[in-house]
Write a structure and sequence with these properties.
It is a single chain. By secondary structure, the chain is an alpha/beta fold. The chain is 40% helix and 18% strand. The strands form four sheets. The chain has a five-stranded mixed beta sheet. Helix 4 packs parallel to helix 5, helix 6 packs across helix 12 and helix 9 crosses helix 11. The radius of gyration is 24 Å and the shape is globular.
Length: 411
């Protein structure tokens, strides 16, 4: 924050930010209630709200009714103060969502695009722009309304080169200049983050890992990965590859080398979606997806029991290696494989883990609704945007309002 610590300007800005955070957490508040929560006097709270209203950060939203005496005005964060975009990328397409500064999702759009197709791999920035434009249109916002964009992808950006690693199945995302190209196409700062890391952030924000400082978030889907949170901080590693457990050598899987597009790692060969389908078919259960296979297994005595037991054993073997090194308080199971296997699979994994590793972390299923990756990308984009937009030490004269009349945050 600009300015000298302790100056009236900085102290006002600190009070402003505290008030805005309280309005986000509690919803509309009266001047009196805001003063009680912040410890500010009524005159100071009034001045603060007037300042924030003039800056376009708060607005009035009706009055408190049903009480004796004069009705009190309610204040809330102005949803139109800023907007962010969050995207998830997979081999079949791009999903984009746009939210206002309060975190309310206003519009989403899915753009189908096979990542390995020749007419796709060289048009990454263009396709991302089209996905975002579709979400903006669904939100009733014009292009240029966004303040920041966060994109979740498999793999991770190497902090030294800027290139995406560990995601050979996304050939169009490996340019070292891609982040700059995306920022130019979207007109916002762009962050590209590992998808499982984002899912872990969503889990810590409003899921099973809320309030937990040390946990591992394991994702089993088409790909297999993990996010490791130590002391409340994501462990990234020297090249951004911390948590790429799909490549982990494990008993029962052949060793793999090279990391090519078709070269799945050892653990992924045992517990990824293709492996689950193969396991189910080996026991006479035919399904189109891993999720369908596990739901079929849950309702099929005998063969289904064998499928779940073997998958639980495989997951336990991999988790034992992770737990022995990290010693987390909690392991969260997520991704389509774990969600479809449900509590029964979780119990089998927990049973299999007993004795394989000395640490005994709690083992829980993810409780984040919808797409955890998209939710994590939104949380990340909102946190960075609020740090900028809510900083009232920055001059706000002439701040443009970009909402269209159909935007609920518009004037």
């Amino acid at each position: 924050m600009a300015g000298t610590p302790g100056t009236p300007r900085v102290l006002r800005a600190m009070n402003d930010r505290a008030a805005l955070d309280l309005l986000l957490a509690h919803g509309p508040l009266t001047r009196t209630r805001l003063g009680e929560l912040t410890g500010l006097s009524k005159p100071t709270a009034s001045q603060l709200l007037g300042r924030l209203e003039s800056a376009g950060l708060v607005r009035t939203t009706g009055n408190v009714t049903g009480r004796p005496g004069p009705s009190a005005q309610l204040y809330e964060v102005d949803p139109g103060a800023a907007h962010v975009a969050a995207l998830t990328v997979d081999p079949e397409g791009i999903t984009a969502a746009v939210a206002d500064i309060t975190g309310r999702v206003l519009g989403e759009h899915r753009l189908a695009a096979v990542a390995t197709a020749e007419d796709v791999r060289d048009r990454t920035a263009e396709l991302v722009g089209r996905a975002v434009d579709g979400a903006l249109g669904a939100a009733g916002l014009r292009p240029g309304a966004l303040h920041r964009t966060v994109i979740g992808t498999p793999g991770a950006l190497d902090p030294h080169t800027g290139a995406l690693r560990y995601a050979p199945h996304l050939p169009g995302w490996h340019s070292r200049t891609l982040r700059d190209e995306l920022a130019e196409a979207l007109g916002t700062p762009v962050a590209v983050e590992n998808d499982v890391n984002l899912a872990a952030l969503a889990e810590r924000h409003d899921g099973t890992a809320r309030g937990v400082e040390n946990f591992v978030h394991v994702w089993a889907d088409e790909g297999v990965g993990a996010a490791v949170v130590i002391g409340g901080t994501l462990l990234r590693g020297a090249t951004g590859g911390a948590g790429e457990i799909g490549y982990m050598p494990v008993p029962g899987a052949p060793l793999t080398r090279g990391g090519g597009p078709r070269d799945a790692g050892g653990f992924q060969r045992l517990v990824g979606a293709p492996a689950v389908l193969g396991l189910a078919r080996a026991h006479g259960l035919d399904a189109a997806t891993a999720g369908e296979a596990l739901r079929l297994a849950a309702g099929t005595p005998g063969a289904g029991d064998a499928v779940l037991a073997e998958l639980g054993r495989r997951l336990a073997v991999g988790l034992a290696a992770i737990v022995a090194v990290v010693d987390p308080e909690l392991v969260v199971l997520s991704g389509e494989v774990c969600r479809a296997g449900g509590e029964r699979l979780r119990e089998l994994v927990e049973e299999g883990l007993t004795g394989l590793a000395l640490p005994r972390p709690r083992l829980r299923l993810s409780t984040v609704e919808g797409s955890p990756i998209l939710a994590g990308a939104l949380h990340t984009a909102l946190a960075a945007t609020r740090d900028t937009v809510f900083d009232t030490t920055i001059a706000r004269a002439g701040r443009a309002r970009t909402a269209t009349p159909s935007d609920p945050g518009g004037s």
